[in-house]
Amino acid sequence: MMMQRTGFVLLILCLMAPLFGPFSELFSAIIIAILIAVGIKAGHHRRPWDPLKTLGVIFIGYFTLLFAAGLISDASLWQTLDGLSPASPVLILGLAAIFSDPKSLQVESQKIGDIAAFSVIAMYLGALMLWHFQIDFQVLGKSVLHHASVNGRLRLFAGNPLPFGAIMITLCGLSFLGWWQKSSFGKVVSLAAFLIGVTIVAFWSEARGPLLTLGLLLAPIGLGAWFYIRSKKIFRPANLVFAAVIVGGGILLWPMAASALERLINGLTTLQEGQNYDNSTYLRLVMYGAAWEAFSGNWLFGFGPHARFTAITAHFPTGINIDYSHAHNVFLNHAVAAGIFGLCAVSSVLLTPVVLAWKYAKQRFGSELYFASILTLSMVGCGMSNVLLFHDLTAYFFATLSVIAAAGLSHDSSEQGRS
What DSSP element (H or E) covers 33? Predict the structure, then answer.
């Protein structure tokens, strides 16, 4: 019975990661280690091929390829291990996917949506309480108030506003999962969580990359809403009331949103014209150009995971000094680290959830495909400005959700392979 709830426990730890911080990863690692040990003893790795096993092979292949690139290019084994350590959750969860019973990792779609909505609201209330009462104490030698950055760009225990924004915007999309099975109260909570989460990303964390990713997530969200409205007789005046609430809320939020909107507009102008209207965005453009030049110079095997940033510094324009440790782009990071093979490896990790869902989902446009679409679109969108798999928290977050999604697709063998 306990093993059957493993996926549920891992899901809670994963979705609450920005609030629990390193404790989520620690407890998840312990649970996964037990899961792998039990699975090896039970011989679950000898089961027929299923989506979960396929995902596990892709995860392990991804890590193995980067490790091989490090052995070729890095100066020492220690450098390779150091450069790959943030991506270790992908390897660990890949092993769990191969050695675990899919049933132990399966979670109902409605529960995933409910926990995602609850996580958004819990993080919002927690941050609001810290900000309002200025509560401060030490955890692992760090000031909670300072580390959570509630008085600045909110990040809680994600370490940085960008990883926090990537997780939060993904939770916003997942909050609608299982919408058809939700009660009226559940639908209201999901909608509230979505609006709260988007507002936090836009105006409190000011994470522009994740906010722009919302545009991608609106595709599956909008498609799901269209199917729902078509199948139900929605009272049109209620839609007008809802629209009025959204517009009214936007007017009330405008004063506090002015600076965030200004940063967003300046950033977009910088992207369009290539001029320094926003320093952060301009430095990213410089890094992207330098990373492309580095990749072009060693496109086959790359420079190794440890040198993924130092390799591009040689291509910075004269007078540019950038104090970062990565290129703020998941594709360029992997291209520089492991060449064309790294680019293929990271693309396979990001696209696998939606490919597996398209092949194995019970319904062509059901909850399973929606879940996978939110995952893949979030990883691709946020990865355009985020280190993603080279950040331990986001690697853990997205790898865990990918495993749970693949476990949900691992139906009885008689149902698999349906196109």
Answer: helix 22-42
pLDDT by residue, tens only, the chain of 419 residues: 455 588 999 999 999 999 888 899 999 999 999 999 999 999 999 999 999 999 999 999 999 999 999 999 888 899 999 999 999 999 999 999 999 999 999 999 999 999 999 999 999 999 888 888 887 777 666 777 777 888 888 899 888 899 999 999 999 999 999 888 888 888 888 988 999 999 999 888 888 889 889 989 988 988 887 877 777 655 555 555 555 555 555 555 455 555 666 666 776 777 666 667 777 788 888 898 999 999 999 998 899 999 888 899 888 888 777 877 778 899 999 999 999 999 999 999 999 999 999 999 888 778 999 999 999 999 999 999 888 999 999 999 999 999 999 999 987 533 443 33
Question: Rounded CA gap, 322 and 317, in Å?
Answer: 11
Roughly what angle, to the nearest 10 degrees, separates helices 22-42 and 88-99?
A: 30
Give the predicted TM-score (pTM) of the model.
0.89
What are the tokens at 223? 């498609």
Give the separation between CA 400 and CA 96, rounded to whole angstroms.
10
Distance CA 30, CA 184 (A): 37
Are residues 342 and 83 in contact, defined by beta-carbon separation less than 8 angstroms?
A: no
